[in-house]
Write a structure and sequence with these properties.
With 219 residues, this protein is mostly beta strands. It has one domain. It contains one helix and 13 strands. A seven-stranded antiparallel sheet has the order 7-8-9-10-11-12-13, with no helix packed on it. Strands 1-2-5-6 form a four-stranded antiparallel sheet, with no helix packed on it. A two-stranded antiparallel ribbon has the order 3-4. Strand 7 and strand 8 (122-128) form a beta hairpin. The longest helix has 20 residues, at 2-21. Residues 1-20 form the signal peptide.
Length: 219
């Protein structure tokens, strides 16, 4: 009888372990949230397509009437990063509320469009703002977290007025300013300025409260 009691827990643990290995991306969406977007790409250079979920809270209290008398969903969005294994996915990192909703009031501007890119094993959080330019945050999985290792910003659309690129690993910042006032696009002439930056520790994806307030270009 005692031998059976010892064997049973091991059997249950084996079954539970198999189930964990077979988990799909939808299994990682927390209660009270829904899938907003889904992306696939290799984030740990193992040749397998990992998964990034953008999730969105489903609290009806955050469905409000905007200044145009239109009902809009102002629930915040978050991110869940999953590594692909042989039989399913496992959680790599998460942050359930770091992104504002897609329905924020931008005043005279439209809200920037958020999407995810994959580049050389890095996770890119990209904000596109049409003719006003773009900015993006570059994360790498290291020290058991996705850490912010770079930032790029471009101002202007067809004609670029300025660009900023920060490498948080080398602690260097490059600013490129267009000096050709008559540029029509592609014929910009850039003046380059390099500076050192000060940063004590790399920013973790899981600890970012709000990307809208992450003004890394001030380093």
């Amino acid at each position: 009888m005692k031998k059976s009691l010892l064997i049973l827990p091991f059997f249950l643990l084996t079954i539970l372990g198999c189930k964990a290995q077979d988990r799909e991306p939808s299994d990682f969406i927390p209660k009270g949230y829904a899938e907003f977007e889904k992306y696939f790409g290799d984030l740990n250079k193992d040749g397998l397509d990992d998964c990034v979920l953008i999730i969105k809270k489903t609290d009806t209290a955050n469905i409000v009437t905007n200044r145009f008398d239109k009902k809009v969903d102002r629930n915040r969005r978050g991110i869940v990063v999953l590594f692909k294994k042989e039989k399913g996915y496992e959680l790599a990192d998460k942050n359930y509320s770091c992104f504002s909703s897609e329905n924020e009031d931008g005043g005279v501007y439209f809200p920037p469009e958020l999407w995810i890119d994959f580049e050389r094993g890095n996770l890119i959080v990209h904000y596109g703002h049409g003719r006003y330019g773009f900015w993006r945050y570059i994360f790498r999985f290291q020290n058991s977290n996705f850490e912010l290792i770079g930032y790029d910003e471009s101002n202007g659309g067809v004609v670029i007025s300025s660009e900023t690129s920060i490498n948080f690993l080398t602690k260097k910042k490059l600013i490129r300013e267009n000096t050709n006032e008559n540029a029509e696009g592609g014929d910009e002439v850039f003046k380059e300025t390099w500076d050192n930056i000060e940063i004590e520790a790399l920013i973790k994806l899981s600890e970012i409260k709000d990307f809208d307030e992450l003004e890394v270009y001030n380093y």
